[in-house]
Design brief:
This protein is mainly α. It has nine helices and no strands. Helix 2 packs across helix 7 and helix 3 packs across helix 7. The radius of gyration is 18 Å and the shape is globular.
Length: 264
């Protein structure tokens, strides 16, 4: 029977597919770490209180990248090149979502609207990250190789999502509500399209590595397209709602160190 757990297990059990999986994940997390670090440096003076939280966000992303690379090292594997069509973060940037890297490379303070754009982009992408890590935690929380790393990253992603909700609500109360909703909707509709394309590309690469038969590949492709169809009609709305999170001030402290089992 084809299930999410059996699919992930198949990918994780093969060294080549595992190397690609971890390399894609590590690359995306590292890019996110750099972006947040630059945003923290360029925060406008009126929002300097946000800088430590943005720095913490970036530190968490960097930590996740190290964890995925450490998982490779534990198996005696090395990172592999990330196919451009699987690079979620860069494809979002090319779609005009979030703050462009060219803008972040300039030593020019960001505006309040830039910060709102950053938070809206993060709220959408962290929703996806939180859901993906919850899926992995549901199936692999007790796995001796992956369990501790999965639990830590999942908890961090939940914190990131809580932080985005809290800060966007603060900006909404300050009069940015319409801009926030407009930006959230634009980001969500672009993200679900990019996520579909990246998912199809990743599954195509995994299928070639694992020699999936055509019927299996076709079923997976159809499933990805069905998810997109649902998200295009209604599912995107879960990415644009805002509510006060249970985890208040979720990024108010230092980043937790990666687990020894993943870092060793």
């Amino acid at each position: 029977m084809l299930s999410a757990k059996s699919l992930f297990q198949e990918i994780l059990d093969d060294d080549e597919s595992f190397a690609l999986f971890c390399s894609i994940a590590a690359s995306g997390e590292s890019q996110g770490g750099w972006e947040n670090a630059r945003i923290a440096e360029l925060v406008p003076e009126t929002q300097r209180a946000l800088a430590p939280k943005i720095t913490r966000h970036g530190a968490d992303e960097d930590k996740h990248g190290r964890i995925f690379n450490a998982l490779l090292k534990k198996r005696g594997l090395s990172p592999v090149p990330v196919p451009p069509e699987t690079d979620y973060t860069m494809l979002l940037e090319r779609s005009g979502i979030g703050l462009a890297h060219g803008r972040l490379r300039r030593d020019e303070p960001l505006t309040v609207q830039d910060i709102v754009t950053y938070l809206a982009h993060s709220r959408v992408t962290e929703q996806r990250a939180s859901e993906q890590m919850e899926l992995l935690r549901r199936h692999f929380a007790d796995d001796p190789e992956l369990g501790r790393a999965v639990r830590m990253i999942s908890s961090d992603e939940d914190n990131h999502l809580a932080y985005c909700h809290e800060e966007l609500l603060r900006f909404a109360y300050a009069g940015h509500g319409r801009a926030i909703q407009r930006t959230l909707r634009e980001c969500a509709l672009a993200e679900i399209r990019v996520y579909r394309d990246v998912s199809l590309a990743v599954m195509a690469h995994m299928g070639r590595i694992l020699n999936w038969p055509r019927p299996k590949a076709a079923v997976l492709s159809a499933g990805i397209r069905a998810v997109y169809a649902y998200e295009r009609v209604a599912g995107w709305r879960r990415m644009v709602s805002l509510r006060m999170p249970e985890r208040s001030n979720a990024l108010g402290g230092p980043a937790a160190p990666e687990p020894e089992a993943a870092a060793g």
